[in-house]
Design brief:
The structure holds two protein chains of two kinds.
Chain A: H1 2-14, H2 21-27, H3 33-55, H4 63-70, H5 73-106, H6 112-127, H7 131-157, H8 164-171, H9 180-187, H10 196-199, H11 214-238, H12 245-251, H13 263-293, H14 308-327, H15 330-363
Chain B: H1 4-16, H2 19-23, E1 32-42, E2 50-58, E3 69-77, H3 80-87, E4 94-96, E5 102-106, H4 107-110, H5 115-123, E6 132-137, H6 140-144, H7 156-162, E7 175-176, H8 177-185, E8 192-198, E9 204-212, E10 217-221, H9 223-232, E11 239-245, E12 248-266, E13 269-285, H10 295-318, H11 326-333, H12 339-346, E14 351-362
Parallel strand pairs in B: 1-4, 1-5, 5-6, 6-8, 13-14
Antiparallel strand pairs in B: 1-2, 2-3, 6-7, 8-9, 9-10, 11-12, 12-13
Helix pairs in contact in B: 5-8
The chains are: A mainly alpha, B alpha/beta.
Keywords (chain A): Membrane, Transmembrane, Transmembrane helix
Pfam families (chain A): Spore_permease (PF03845)
InterPro entries (chain A): Spore_GerAB
Chain lengths: ~375, ~375
């Protein structure tokens, strides 16, 4: 079962590319990104340790159940709605970034709204399934795609185009104090554990989280690759000029004997898969949090039939996503996402601290 | 039990997926013109400074040498993007740059300013960043219009010259668009491009390298210098070197070469130390080397290589370009404000020390 926690961590960590993390880090590369990258594993491992430790005292319970045990109804409801909105937003950003990417690189003549509609409809339908199905879906997508990602990263890291001097120049700026935005962007890599706030329902009693030491190391490696590989390819000055940094970096590589020479297409397909499953997982969680507000709702992880409420909630999400895309342009999207990353960091700290304190209170005799 | 509702829902979803099919911008492959080579020159006309030449592949059922067919389109325009837009009026199919792997910049343009050309290339989404860049001499159009008799399919000959699939020439300097655009922006790492010339309209000669600053050509290296530059830059392909030992000419083939450099500060005088290790085999010698100790031969060859390399480095330094990335290394090793200004002061006065370790592994099949 520990592998499920691993998947939850990994697929969020890999999604950083779609949620502008490399872009934000690269914008701040001369003031504080490197320090943020080094600080974030510490932050991440503390959060992971506290959250898993606390949740192991609430076996089989998600955040809605835990909160409604201890807090008044209005507070739980408000918090869950806020939480659901945070989740909804992150996946909307990912879906939108992807729709724009497909429009730019695959089919420039198509209407971007139609592409977006297809993406959100597919993800929305998948999100109506049961929690267990979504978890298994994540597993399948991870197993199918991670080997390809490893292959692309291996090719990049071993490429002679990767200039170590450029990387060294940027790494020298390690003593600059990180800005809030770069810290929020860097800690996003470690945020996968927060998915446990719903998926903890799947874990049986007496479940023990193992190999926790692995996550900070893995996260740090992903973060270093995310940040430094584009710098090695485009130089310490040149990275700032690209909007789709990682797509462009993938395009700088060639698979001479592959079926398709341009690595970019392979890269985009892999990340399309990941984005779809990210959107699915995030919306599923948002939906469950909303359902958790209602007193009559019993948490179910493997219902044979999806209740009507699932369709209703996800219908609203889908509409809202398309509406968001109509209203917001790309520059605004970047600004809003940066704000979201910062709010997310504080929300996470608040949530983890609350659950941790609740779990300690439970130990004390009343 | 009302099973009909989900079925209707599913049908509606399936029908909904048909909606985008109509709006799809897909064009069939036979409705596209694949551009296989792009040349950009200066036209000499003040009002329309750029001359754009594109080489369009015409698909042919036969794949045998000399059967590749082209169509050329040329236009003068104020800017490249506008020229391209205008060219669409000249052809019947949609222009597609997705397969264009060769971009040639005319020499006159490269001697003036190439920044706007590069901006266009990097901006366009369908231009591959792995495309090869080169300078055409005397101009890009004449290079593109060469029809090599050995060419099997359109645009292949020039592409093979640059990649490692076909010929491996130690005089060629293959630079991709992404590498070139990196070098245009990076402090302390200047761009360089190979120069392509036509060989009596039946092939290409690529044996010179143009060294550039961030805008234009500063120095053109002769074939011998170009080979040595490739060796110093570790862009090594199997190459050879020539030396003289006791009045006899010796040619050795270099099989392996490692080049490293270090920047040292000795009494306010900066020294750039280049260490080269190479493993060689004798390819040609006018006297027999039987029973001869090869050590003095090695020492002699090392000496002559060191002298030539130092001369080349000094020449590059004098042109005030830095294609080997000494400046970038200095920035990496000396962090802090003003480091770049320091380097710009240091570089013109820095001295070079080349240290070669040459090992002769064998004398070929005969003594």
């Amino acid at each position: 079962m520990n592998r499920y926690f691993f998947y939850l961590f990994l697929f969020v960590a890999l999604m950083n590319i779609m949620i502008f993390v490399p872009h934000i880090l690269n914008d701040n590369r001369f003031d504080g990104s490197v320090a943020a990258i080094l600080i974030s594993p510490i932050f991440g491992s503390i959060m992971i340790y506290m959250f898993t430790n606390a949740l192991s005292r609430f076996p089989g319970q998600g955040l809605p159940e835990i909160f409604s045990q201890y807090f008044p109804r209005w507070f739980t409801t408000a918090y869950m709605i806020f939480y659901a909105m945070m989740y909804w937003f992150s996946s909307t950003v990912v879906a939108m970034a992807f729709a724009v990417l497909i429009n730019r690189f695959f089919n420039p003549d198509a209407n971007v709204l139609i592409i977006m509609s297809i993406i959100v409809l597919a993800s929305g339908y998948a999100a109506t399934r049961s929690t267990l199905t979504v978890m298994l879906l994540i597993e399948i997508i991870i197993i199918l795609n991670v080997p390809i990602i490893l292959f692309i990263i291996f090719k990049m890291v071993t490429s002679p185009q990767l200039n170590l001097d450029s990387i060294h120049v940027v790494a020298n700026y390690v003593w600059h104090w990180p800005s809030l935005a770069s810290l929020a962007a860097a800690t996003f890599i470690f945020t996968g554990y927060i998915n446990l706030s719903l998926f903890n329902r799947l874990f049986p009693p007496n479940f023990r989280f193992k190999f926790l030491w692995m996550y900070p190391i893995l996260g740090l490696i992903i973060l270093l690759v995310t940040f430094f590989v584009p710098i090695g390819f485009h130089g310490s000055q040149g990275t700032a000029q690209y909007i789709y940094l990682w797509t462009i970096t993938a395009d700088s590589l060639m698979m001479q004997y592959g079926f398709i020479e341009r690595v970019m297409f392979l890269f985009l397909i892999v990340f399309l898969n990941l984005s779809l499953v990210y959107t699915t997982a995030a919306w599923h969680q948002a939906m469950e949090f909303l359902k958790g507000c209602m007193p009559s709702m019993k948490p179910e992880t493997d219902s044979p039939k999806a209740p009507i409420s699932n369709y209703v909630i996800l219908g609203i999400f889908t509409m809202a996503s398309i509406l968001y895309m109509v209203m917001v342009n790309e520059n605004m999207n970047l600004a809003i996402t940066t704000a979201w990353l910062i709010i997310r960091m504080f929300t996470e700290v608040a949530t983890v601290a609350t659950v941790f304190i609740l779990s300690r209170r439970r130990l004390m005799p009343r | 039990m009302r099973p009909i509702a989900p079925i209707i829902l599913k049908l509606a979803l399936a029908l909904l997926l048909l909606v985008p099919v109509g709006g799809c911008g897909f064009k069939d492959i036979d409705k596209r013109f694949f551009v296989v080579g792009t040349g950009i020159d200066l036209s000499g006309n003040e009002e329309k400074p750029y001359r754009l030449t594109i080489q369009l592949a015409i698909p042919s059922p036969k794949i045998e040498p000399g059967t590749s067919k082209f169509q050329y389109e040329t236009i003068d325009a104020i800017s490249i993007a506008e020229g391209l837009r205008m060219l669409k009026a000249y052809v019947d199919k949609e222009l597609d740059f997705g397969h264009c792997r060769i971009f040639i910049i005319g020499e006159s343009l490269a001697r003036k300013n190439i920044t706007s050309v590069l901006d266009w290339m990097v901006r366009r989404r369908d231009i591959q960043l792995v495309a090869n860049m080169a300078i055409g001499k005397p101009d890009a159009a004449s290079v593109l219009k060469i029809k090599p008799i050995s060419e099997q399919y359109p645009g292949n000959a020039l592409l093979l010259s640059f990649g490692a699939d076909g010929t491996e020439s130690s005089y060629n300097y293959a630079e991709s668009l992404s590498g070139f655009s990196r070098r245009l922006t990076e402090k302390g790492l200047d761009p360089a491009l190979a120069i392509v010339k036509g060989d009596k309209n039946k092939g290409y000669i690529i044996n010179e390298i143009a060294l550039m600053d961030k805008q234009k050509i500063k120095l053109v290296l002769s074939p011998d210098e170009a080979q040595m530059f490739n060796q110093l830059a570790s862009r090594f392909t199997k190459s050879s070197m020539h030396g003289i030992y006791r009045h006899d000419g010796i040619v050795v083939a270099i099989n392996q070469l490692h080049s490293r450099f270090r920047i040292e500060n000795q009494d306010a005088q900066h020294l750039i130390k280049v260490n080269i290790r190479m493993k060689t085999v004798i390819e040609e010698s006018s006297s027999s080397l039987m029973e001869k100790d090869l050590k003095p031969v090695e020492a002699k060859l090392e000496k002559s290589y060191e002298a030539e390399a130092t001369k080349l480095l000094a020449k590059i330094q004098k042109a005030n370009v830095d294609p080997l990335g000494f400046g970038l290394r200095y920035l990496a090793m000396n962090p802090g404000e003003g480091s770049w200004d320091n380097w710009q002061r240091i570089y013109p006065d820095a001295s070079f020390k080349v240290n070669v370790r040459l090992i002769i592994e064998g004398t070929g099949l005969i003594w």
